Amino acid sequence: MTPALAAPLFVASIALMLLASAVFARRLDHIGLRLGLPEALLGLLTALAADAPEISSAISALLQHEHAVAVGVVVGSNAFNIAAMLGLSAVVTARVRGRHEALELEAFVGLWLVAVTLAVVAGGLGATTGAVLVAAVAVPYVVLLAAGPRFARRLPLGVAESRFVRRSFGEEHRRARPLDSHREASRLAATLLAALVVIVAGSVGAVRSATDLAHSWSVPQALVGVIVLAILTSLPNAWTGVRFGLQQRGSALISETLNSNSINIVAGLSVPAALGTLGAFSGLAVFDLAWLLGMTAAALVLFGKRDGAGRTAGAFLIVLYLAFLAVQIAKS
Within the chain, which residues score under 50 in pLDDT? Predict the structure, then answer.
């Protein structure tokens, strides 16, 4: 594809993908609030919706045998999410506070998934073993979120453990208003499906045009994934994160950020590696995941305080991300 065709296709694909993702995330959040779902589950659903461009772009890159682009999209998106969702939200709103028990739970899941993936990438674990270790934590976590606080309260736990689980999964909204009719539910489902189709189509066009432009302009493929596609496909996450911050929904913000990164790791790296569709990882990929692990740990320490995190903490995460970008450019 010539640059004259690839450039407008890239712009159009990204625009359509972001627009459809915004509709998808807004509708899912609307449904969750109407059903009175817990904030942690709302964060997971919103993360899944906002992650659609990143995941579909990574999978599109894999199907087009652009492995460096696929890895770059996942790792670059996760680093950007921490800086833009947590860091920028703290800078804009001056303070982000979340329920401490929910943060501890998200911290364990997020750090576990990144650490296991790093071990696989560095050669310390086999891809299949890594996938099993990822599933051992991810599956029970999703089941508990989906089951809701009532199920969590019925678990045979001690007083302290029961209180922790109840507060982790039990921050519910009052059910705003049930869906009015079957027609309304069908309309919302059709909107979600249409938006998802547009997201997938846009990701295919964006990856194809971006890699063609990179080839024509002699830009390293890794930079296309880790900077260009990673940032652009993560914009829905950034917008949703700042919106949660302005609404003082700190638990949902933290949950969406960490869940978004976990979803990216599982769908974009762990599953493809277990299926053997990813090639050998470069030394830069190992560094990127190690840096991501460090950024995640730093974010959890800063936002894990009882009074939350302020502008200084947010600015620090943004600086860490800028250093990450500087390394990518220097190594390429």
Answer: 171-176
124-174: pLDDT as tens digits: 888 889 989 999 998 888 877 776 656 666 666 665 555 555 555 554 444
Q: How far apart (Å, rounded) are the C-alpha atoms in residues 84 and 318?
A: 7
Q: How far is 269 from 223, CA to CA, in rounded Å? A: 18
**What residues contact residue 290 under an 8 Å CB cut-off, 6+ apart?**
118
Q: For residues 117 and 269, is the Cβ–Cβ distance under 8 A? A: yes
**Residue 217 CB partners (closer than 8 Å, separation 6+):** 3
Would you say the pTM of this structure is higher than 0.85?
no
The residues near 220 (Cβ < 8 Å, ≥ 6 apart) are 214, 332
Burial of 174 (0-12, 13-18, 19+ CB in 10 A): exposed
